[in-house]
Design goal:
nine-stranded mixed beta sheet; 8 helices; ten-stranded antiparallel beta sheet; single chain; alpha+beta
Length: 337
C-alpha cells in the first residue's frame, strides 16, 4: 500500500470566499491551485485544517465518524486565526456529495478514507492583516495504519525538553499548520535518535505532559485512565480523545483529566502502578506505546510481549463502532446518504 496520506481520490471540493460571502462549492478533479506569490498564506501563515474518516459498513454503505465535532473545531481554529467561519451544515452536505462521487475509492476494513478539509488566506498583499479572501477545500485519501510496521507493543517515545510546541494563550488548541511546522525540528532529531515521536511538555516548566507530535496521549495508572487536561489551552482537543473518555466513562471506569508531571510518571513506574500508555487520534486511532524516556530516565516501559489489555480493548471497541460491527449508543456514526 502507498505511504499514509499519498493515495488521493479522483475529485476534490473547492469553495472561495470573496466580497464578504462564500461562493457555491464545486467538485472538481483533484488538481493544483493557482495562487499569487504574495498570498497571505505564504507569508503570514493564515491556514487551518481538519482530519476525519469515513468507514465502509458491513452492508456496503459508508459512515463518517463524528464529523460535526471536527467541523465545529475547524470554526474554533478559524476564530483563533481571525479567519471566516464555514457553514458546518452545508459543508457536511458538500462533503457527502464528494464522497458519493468517489464512493468506489472507499476500501474495506481495516483501511479507510481520510478526509482533509482545509482553508487558507488568498489575499495577494504583503501586509500583516487578516485576509479578506479565502480558499476552502476538501481532499480525500485512502489510508491504513499510521504507524504501520512498528513493534507490536507500539511506538517508542521521548519527552522534548528543549523545544516547545505551544503555550497558554498561543495556538496550541487550534489545528493550524504552524503548530506542526514548529514541531519538525524536534521530531527529526528524535527520529535520528531511534524514537518514533516526541512527547511535548508544558512551555513554562517542561514538567507536565501535554501531547505527542500529532495526537493526544493517555495513561493507565492503577485502575484509572488518565490524560492531560485541555483546560490549559495549549493542547488540541482531539475528537478521538473526547470519544474515548466518553466510552470509558460509560463503562463505569475511573477517568481523570488533569495535569500529569513527569515526576509522577517516574514514581508510578517505580511503584509498578503505571500499567499502560497509548496514543490516540484520527490517524493513529489507538496506538500502544512501548517506551517513554525523559532525560534518559524511564517514564514508562512495556516489558511484556503484547500491548496493554485496556489499550487493545478500547481500540477494538472504537473500531467496531466506526466500522459498524458494534452498536453505536452514542450516535457517533453519520451515514452518507
Amino acid at each position: 500500500m502507498a505511504a499514509f496520506g499519498s493515495a488521493f481520490t479522483p475529485h476534490m471540493l473547492r469553495q472561495r470566499y470573496a466580497n464578504g460571502a462564500w461562493q457555491k462549492a464545486e467538485i472538481v478533479p483533484f488538481d493544483s491551485f493557482t495562487l499569487s506569490p504574495a498570498s497571505v498564506v505564504f507569508h503570514y501563515g493564515q491556514e487551518i485544517f481538519e482530519g476525519f474518516k469515513v468507514y465502509r459498513q458491513p452492508d456496503g454503505s459508508c459512515c463518517l465518524f463524528r464529523p460535526d465535532r471536527n467541523l465545529a473545531r475547524m470554526n474554533n481554529s478559524a476564530a483563533r486565526l481571525s479567519m471566516v467561519p464555514i457553514n458546518n451544515k452545508q459543508v457536511l452536505a458538500d462533503i457527502c456529495e464528494l464522497l458519493r462521487k468517489d464512493m468506489a475509492s472507499l476500501p474495506k476494513r481495516p483501511e479507510t478514507l481520510y478526509i482533509r478539509p482545509f482553508m487558507f488566506g488568498t489575499d495577494g498583499v504583503i501586509r500583516v492583516n487578516p485576509s479578506e479572501t479565502y480558499m476552502f477545500a476538501v481532499i480525500v485519501c485512502v489510508v491504513g495504519d499510521y504507524f504501520a510496521g512498528q513493534d507490536q507493543r507500539g511506538v517508542r517515545l521521548r519527552t522534548e525538553t528543549e523545544y516547545v510546541r505551544a503555550a497558554p494563550g498561543g495556538t496550541g488548541a487550534a489545528k493550524c499548520g504552524g503548530n506542526y511546522a514548529a514541531s519538525l525540528a524536534a521530531q527529526g532529531r528524535a527520529t535520528k535518535e531511534g524514537f518514533d515521536q516526541v512527547v511535548w511538555l508544558d512551555g513554562k516548566q517542561h514538567r507536565y505532559i501535554e501531547e505527542m507530535g500529532g495526537m493526544n496521549i493517555m495513561f493507565v495508572i492503577g485502575d484509572t485512565l488518565v490524560t492531560p487536561t485541555i483546560e490549559t489551552g495549549s493542547i488540541l482537543p482531539g475528537v478521538t480523545r473526547e470519544s474515548l473518555l466518553e466510552l470509558v466513562r460509560s463503562q463505569g471506569r475511573k477517568v481523570e483529566e488533569r495535569n500529569i508531571s513527569v515526576d509522577e510518571l517516574i514514581e508510578a513506574q517505580k511503584a509498578g502502578t503505571f500499567k499502560e500508555a497509548f496514543a490516540c487520534g484520527t490517524a493513529a486511532v489507538i496506538t500502544p506505546i512501548r517506551e517513554i524516556l525523559h532525560r534518559g530516565e524511564t517514564l514508562f516501559k512495556n516489558s511484556g510481549s503484547k500491548p496493554g489489555e485496556l489499550t487493545m480493548q478500547l481500540r477494538t471497541q472504537l473500531l467496531d463502532i466506526q466500522f459498524g460491527t458494534a452498536p453505536d449508543p452514542f450516535g457517533w456514526r453519520y451515514k452518507v446518504e
